[in-house]
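Table 4 source record.
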Amino acid sequence: MKITKTQLKQIIKEELGKVMEGGSWHGMSDLEGGPEEDIQDAIQMLEGSTEGEVSESVVQMLKQHGIQAAEKAIQILEAEVEAEEDTTGTFFHVINRLDTALQKMGDPSQVIASYPDPSGVNPPQEVYQWQQDEFDARQRAYKAFNKRNKK
């Protein structure tokens, strides 16, 4: 399958458009490996655990406040791990997932682009370095795929 430069530019433009959709940062949750996906994974791990009340309270906190509650959730879970209440190892894995989400958020200096919401209702859409890196990796994979198919 051959594709022209114009078609490739159009594909890239469409992919960037998908990334930029959403009007607020929470619209980024559909990206593979985004912080919101990490939060959802942590919630699912806790919901499947048999650790009891602590799991339920942390799940409720994460569902209500998302990434903003991640640091508090980590503190609660670390206390349980230190008290040796984490019999299944679930809390350890949830702590790692929440920590990954916080690292992906990074500090504001890692924002590489900011696009204002045309309606003015939502905060500006920010693009972080990890999102650009992920997009670049997808683009390289797409090019490699096309190169193999040309042979």
